[in-house]
Amino acid sequence: MRTPIIIANWKMNTNLSDAVVLAQSIKSGIENLEHIEVVLCPPFVWLYPVFETLEKVLGKKIKLGAQDLFWEDDGAYTGEVSGKMLRRMCQYAVVGHSERRHYLHEDDEDINNKVHAALRNGLKPIICVGEYKKMVEEKAGRGRPDKISVNTNILNQLTKALEHVSKKDIENVVIAYEPVWAIGSGNPASGAYAASIINQLREKIFRLYDWDTAQNVRILYGGSVDSKNISEFIRQPEIDGVLVGGVSLKSKEFIKVCEEMAG
């Protein structure tokens, strides 16, 4: 049974006091929820204050994640943060988010190196993959993802991100499908569209590893998720959770998302 997971990506938001208050509020709001995993990903500079705020419940109700990490553990890499630095506080690290691919020009090799850096430091990488334009079969006209486009875009990203990742390590990997056209747009993918892509991602993991491994890897959806549309994704058994952006900065609405996921 794959445990549903909700990942809160705060991106480059909050000040120190806001981050602590937000973490405290979420901690209180989900304390009675069961059968879900909640991961908070604050900016690097607020990781330790949030870690202190959550220390007594970390690893139980809530886990902490980094929004990125560098592929080397030490060295003359000004401004970078390594998995070795993060591993005492964090359990997860986001890798390959579309905003980093776009604004910071991260490529598939960079992302693969970061996946390995996370794994060797005991962090679970959250590998983000997704397309920039909606891939719809024009002839079908039913909004189904075009398989050729999926293969050349999303599945290719996944394959390269998992290069040289062992069968043992893949069990510690989380995949987040995030269509770039949906992020921050207020127009999420439909549950059926997301589920179709996620099915193909799971099939790809099966081809790279085996069936049991593919069934154990959690694959999430991210892109304009909120408390009003979360039910559409929960209804899809293929979707194991959500990666939440803007709504994760609003404690009441984020808690509602967690409540819906917990059932």
From TrEMBL:
Instruction: Supply the CDD domains for this chain.
Output: TIM (cd00311)
Q: Which GO terms describe its cellular component?
A: cytosol
Alphabetical UniProt keywords: Cytoplasm, Gluconeogenesis, Glycolysis, Isomerase
Q: Does the keyword Transcription regulation apply?
A: no
Instruction: Show the InterPro entries listed in the entry.
Output: Aldolase_TIM, TIM_sf, TrioseP_Isoase_bac/euk, Triosephosphate_isomerase, Triosephosphate_isomerase_AS
Keyword Cytoplasm in record: yes
| Molecular function GO terms recorded | triose-phosphate isomerase activity
Its Enzyme Commission number(s) read: 5.3.1.1
Catalytic-site annotation from UniProt: H97, E178
Q: What Pfam families does this protein's entry cite? A: TIM
Q: Give the reaction(s) catalysed.
A: D-glyceraldehyde 3-phosphate = dihydroxyacetone phosphate
Annotated metabolic or biological route of this protein: Carbohydrate biosynthesis; gluconeogenesis; Carbohydrate degradation; glycolysis; D-glyceraldehyde 3-phosphate from glycerone phosphate: step 1/1
Family stated for the protein in its record: Belongs to the triosephosphate isomerase family.
Which NCBIfam families does this chain map to?
A: tim (TIGR00419)
Q: How does it assemble?
A: Homodimer.
Q: Tell me, in a sentence or two, what this protein's role is.
A: Involved in the gluconeogenesis. Catalyzes stereospecifically the conversion of dihydroxyacetone phosphate (DHAP) to D-glyceraldehyde-3-phosphate (G3P).
Name of the protein in question: Triosephosphate isomerase
Organism per entry: Candidatus Berkelbacteria bacterium RIFCSPHIGHO2_12_FULL_36_9
